[in-house]
Specification:
It is a single chain. The protein is 9% helix and 47% strand. With 1004 residues, the chain is mainly beta. The chain has a domain of 76 residues: Carboxypeptidase-like, regulatory domain (Immunoglobulin-like, Sandwich). The strands form 12 sheets. It has a 22-stranded antiparallel beta barrel. Strands 10-15-16-13-14 form a 5-stranded mixed β-sheet. A hairpin with a 3-residue loop joins strand 20 and strand 21. The two termini are 34 Å apart. It comes from Parapedobacter indicus. Pfam families: CarbopepD_reg_2 (PF13715), Plug (PF07715). This is TonB-linked outer membrane protein, SusC/RagA family. It is a multi-pass membrane protein. InterPro entries: Beta-barrel_TonB_sf (IPR036942), CarboxyPept-like_regulatory (IPR008969), Plug_dom (IPR012910), Plug_dom_sf (IPR037066), TonB-dep_OMP_SusC/RagA (IPR023996), TonB-dep_OMP_SusC/RagA_CS (IPR023997), TonB-dep_rcpt-like (IPR039426).
């Protein structure tokens, strides 16, 4: 290991130094700049307009005009690349000032090589739904996570919002396939399953992101693939001289929504409204009562003194500031005839909107590959990520509830622990005063060897050894915890994942027949251990977490687990005349966490495609390509490692009593029942697809329909209490998912100086619970719903079953018994004069969206490129509903003493308010649901590419400047923080950020 580290350091340090030395030595003899011109024609001799002409290794580019002519300034010896949709690209070395080119027809997108798991395939050979995300379109955006770069660009792939520094967005592919099981998407990086944080990957190091969506494509990953698979490939060096690239951006961030707390005057009005019966004169309560003042209320003395002193403290302003993000990435890539290398270093710093919401990341990557001989290649893809989340940000609930009449410090500058007098609302500044470090180190390395079998053309053997090590250290100290006695803690976590894959592949062609096959045998082991030491009542808190022995009360906790996997997979692809394709896959998974009687699982799949446009009987004007696809497959969703086992506990309730009862001894007791027959969840699915291109490939797209059914859903089934337990983990029920996805790419304008492209995507997904426990206790001939768990046969997982609100009770209404003016008026569904859970709840809609759509467009004029992306989620007739429950503190005294957001609250002075009062408690207080539908300008950018003839004079190959924005505009009726997160005007939510960014990219 030490030798390997030394070797890696030599590579990291030596190659850049050698590179700089090389450039310095040649600095007086730079290649000459010249103008190259020519004409590009097709095989029929007709000129081709709109052909992209670019300099390889640079961003310099131009396009041919209507006559097929072009002109570009390049260095002697540079390579020009000629590309156009529908034609095979060509790379030509500049040797003369005149260079004419003939392009041959070819659907470039279909010749593209796509990573499909345990290998690659031509896109034209695919039978399943495999999509490559566009990660380059908005590379200027201030994204700290690669998931943010693909958000909204792939139909069926949903990426959540983030609202805290360094946070991980949620991922979902084609909806939910489980009710109570694992919902994680499987991530594979450079061929190895990756269980780490996506934020540990530097986006600048990512070459491609491919999504496996249908059951057949996912079947190669068997028991872990039911929720979809994301394949990430990192960059590698290219043959040629070393290229040094540097990119940086700086972004400012502010909340997308204008939320603010009530100031002193607004809070005073709320207090008057709370006590309106005394603060105003009857009967209409519109005239102030001159004999009333704030001392005649339930206000605590601290708030009364603040009112008398004219205090108006802005807690929100004091604890928040505009955030920022800065990214830096330095890369060196190149290679010789036998060896290629890619080295990178990255630094990211993010300061969140909240005080102490911090994130820092340093990354380093070394990707190497070398041909030892004609038949042997070895390589390594390695990276290290060092992240720092140190800092405790204020408690949002405390900050939003603290009264504007209170201040955080007394006259001596000391913290006021309970500014409002309420002991459950601690000064929010105190959390930020804690001494905290949250440090993580990840070391990841994949080492591989490839052996080509010379005796059998197309046959090769590959071995992968993947290693991922995580060390997480957390330290904490605060003198204000544990009733001000102080608390300290140290935590250490270690995780190591190891993967060993043996891959035998064959790819060859015999006349009209193409055959490829892949066979995999692999082993994985994951292990984890953690130790936590903490103490309270600390005698000398100044030593912080470095002296835990000074704590009067000490506690130590530890944990450890290990899990192993064994798997085999076979995949065969057959291609006849590039017109008929067949794919068959079979995978077997064994997992240590599976139950005793279900230690392994088998997952088959099959797929076929037919290129109709290759048939002589299909002749449609302007049609370039038409293909039908169909697949069927089975995927799994694994149980957790201990879900089938009987677990024991050693807590205080397990002590044995001896003799006269004065002595006890620690014992063990069972905490859960085992289920030796517990199985993994199984998802069977079909997918039908259509791929097409028209008008010389200026319009292309695909349509996919899918239908899946998940059985053996994991659920804790209630059992008789005589067993000593309440539930047992079991397999029950069926869940269906179906949907349609559409992707369309167009190029309406393509001339010498102007190119305009428009891409659209649409996705619709619905899920339906087909069966649950299979019980019919009321003998009505229909399976019982699980109303307490909000699960209903024939409805979606996210069904909203609740009370229907019909406005707010007013002062002059005949208010129903149990309710007061200012509370919600609930529809009495059965007109019996009372509101009950059994008779008056109805289906209001669902929390899942009806459909998603996105529009991405780019306009290039000479050196300028303007792009925008609009992302939208809509609810349709069933709504896309979310709870929006403002703070309700359950009493007049609490609401008077605590603060809230300045939302549209009902009161005697605002009888048309949208939300019920927060200080009265009716017999039933329903949750209001509102639509979360929105249309958002997610990304917008303007970039300028400098001419190579200009920047080559100062030694640059490439120079690009950009300005961009993220989440700048959102059109929605949703109140509160953000419709996409579903966080409303509740007190414990966090805002989503919008960003303004400037960026620079250059290469030498």
């Amino acid at each position: 290991m030490r030798k390997l580290i030394r070797f890696s350091m030599m590579i990291v340090l030596g190659v850049p130094l050698w590179t700089f030395g090389f450039n310095e030595g040649k600095g007086k003899d730079l290649p000459m700049q010249q103008t190259v011109s020519g004409t590009v024609i097709g095989t029929d001799g007709a000129p081709l307009s709109g052909v992209s002409v670019s300099v390889v290794g640079s961003q310099a580019a131009t396009s041919t005009n209507e006559a097929g002519n072009y002109s570009i300034s390049v260095q002697t010896g540079a390579t020009l690349r000629f590309t156009m949709i529908g034609y095979a690209s060509q790379d030509l070395v500049v040797s003369t000032a005149a260079l004419n080119v003939t392009l041959e027809p070819s659907d470039q997108s279909l010749e593209e090589v796509v990573v499909v798991g345990y290998g690659t395939m031509r896109r034209s050979d695919l039978t399943g739904a495999v999509v490559t995300a566009d990660i380059e379109a908005f590379r200027e955006a201030p994204n700290t996570n690669i998931l943010q770069s693909v958000k909204g660009t792939v139909p069926g792939l949903q990426i959540g919002q983030t609202n805290q520094a360094g946070a991980e967005p949620a991922i979902e592919i084609r909806g939910r396939n489980t009710i109570n099981g694992n919902t994680s998407v499987l991530i594979v990086v450079d061929g190895i399953i990756y269980n780490g944080r996506m934020g540990d990957l530097n986006p600048a190091d990512i070459e491609s992101v491919n999504i496996l969506k249908d059951a057949s494509s996912k079947a190669i990953y068997g028991a872990q693939a039911a929720n979809g698979v994301m394949l990430i490939t990192t960059k590698s060096g290219k043959k040629g001289k070393p290229v040094i690239s540097y990119s940086t951006n700086l972004a400012s961030q502010t909340p997308t929504s204008d939320m603010r707390l009530r100031n002193a005057e607004e809070k005073k009005q709320i207090i008057r409204d709370i006590y309106y019966q005394n603060a105003y004169l009857a009967p209409d309560y519109t005239q102030p009562n001159p004999d009333w003042d704030f001392s005649n209320t339930e206000l605590v003395p601290e708030n009364v003194r603040g009112i008398e002193a004219g205090t108006d403290y802005d807690w929100w302003g004091a604890l928040t500031n505009p955030g920022y993000i800065t990214n830096h990435a330095l890369t060196v890539g190149g290679g010789t005839e036998k060896t290629s290398y890619y080295l990178s270093g990255g630094f990211t710093k993010q300061k969140g909107f909240m005080m102490n919401d911090n994130y820092k990341r340093n990354t380093v990557r070394i990707n190497l590959s070398t041909d030892i001989s004609d038949w042997l290649t070895i390589g390594a893809n390695t990276f290290g990520a060092f992240t720092d989340y140190s800092g405790i940000y204020p408690n949002m609930s405390a900050m939003k509830l603290t009264s504007p009449f209170a201040t955080p410090w007394d006259e001596n500058g000391e913290y006021i622990i309970y500014p409002t007098g309420a002991t459950n609302i601690i000064n929010p500044f105190i959390a930020a005063a804690a001494d905290n470090k949250d440090l993580n180190t990840r070391i990841n390395g994949t080492f591989y060897g490839i052996v080509k079998i010379p005796q059998i053309p197309g046959l090769e053997y590959r071995v992968n050894l993947g290693n991922d090590f995580l060390l997480a250290n957390y330290y904490y100290s605060s003198p204000y915890d544990a009733d001000l006695s102080g608390s300290v803690s140290k935590s250490n976590q270690q995780r190591y994942d190891m993967t060993f894959d043996n891959i035998l592949s064959y790819d060859n062609r015999f006349g009209d027949h193409g055959i490829s096959a892949t066979f995999v045998a692999g082993y994985r082991k994951n292990q984890f251990e953690s130790t936590l030491a903490e103490g309270t009542n600390v005698s000398n808190i100044s030593l912080s977490y470095n002296s835990l022995e000074q704590a009067e009360i000490q506690r130590i906790n530890s944990d450890a687990w290990k899990e192993t996997f064994l798997y085999q997979m076979g995949r065969i692809n057959y291609n006849f005349r590039n017109t008929y394709m067949l794919t068959a896959t079979l995978r077997q998974d064994g997992f240590s966490g599976f139950s005793k009687n279900n230690k392994s699982a088998l997952f088959p799949s099959v797929g076929a495609s037919w290129v109709l446009s290759n048939e002589s009987f299909v002749s449609i004007p302007k049609l370039d390509y038409l293909r039908l696809r169909g697949t069927y497959g089975v995927n799994g969703n694994m149980t957790t490692r201990y879900s089938s086992l009987a677990r024991v506990t050693t807590d205080d309730n397990s002590k044995y009593v001896f003799g006269d009862g004065s002595g006890t001894a620690m014992g063990q007791s069972m905490g859960s029942l085992s289920n030796d027959n517990l199985s993994w969840e199984k998802t069977k699915g079909v997918n039908a697809g259509l791929d097409f291109s028209l008008f010389k490939n200026r319009v292309s797209g695909n349509i996919d329909y899918y239908n899946t059914e998940t059985t053996d859903l994991l659920w804790n089934v209630i059992i008789p209490e005589i067993t000593g337990f309440s539930v047992i983990s079991s397999n029950v029920g069926r869940l269906k998912n179906q949907g349609v996805e559409v992707s369309l790419s167009t190029t309406p304008v393509r001339t010498e100086h102007v190119k305009w492209d428009v891409n659209l995507n649409f996705a619709k997904n619905t899920n339906k619970i087909m069966s649950l426990l299979g019980e019919d206790k009321n003998n009505d001939g229909r399976e019982d719903d699980l109303i307490g768990s909000n699960l209903f046969i024939g409805k979606s997982i996210g069904t909203v079953y609740h009370y229907q609100i019909d406005g707010i009770w007013q002062l002059d209404d005949d208010v129903m018994t149990g309710y007061q003016p200012g509370t919600y008026r609930i529809v009495d569904q059965n007109n019996d004069g009372k509101i009950t859970a059994d008779n008056d709840r109805v289906f209001l809609g669902q929390t899942e969206p009806a459909y998603f759509f996105g529009i991405q467009s780019g306009l290039t004029y000479k050196n300028f490129t303007f792009r925008f992306f609009v992302n939208a989620i809509q609810g349709g007739k069933n709504g896309y509903l979310g709870e929006n429950v403002p703070a309700n503190v359950a009493s007049t005294g609490n609401f008077a003493n605590l603060n809230t957001f300045n939302y549209d609250l009902w009161s005697v002075s605002n009888p048309t308010g949208k939300y019920a009062t927060g200080w009265t408690v009716p017999q039933i207080n329903p949750k209001p649901y509102y639509s979360r539908s929105f249309v958002r300008v997610q990304d917008i950018s303007l970039a300028y590419q400098f001419n190579s003839s200009l920047i080559s004079k100062i030694g640059f190959k490439d120079l690009r400047l950009s300005v961009s924005g993220k989440n700048l505009l959102t059109f929605t009726k949703w109140d509160g923080w953000d419709p996409e997160t579903g966080q409303g005007i509740n007190s414990d939510a966090y805002p989503v950020m919008k960003s303004f960014n400037v960026g620079l990219e250059l290469s030498l």
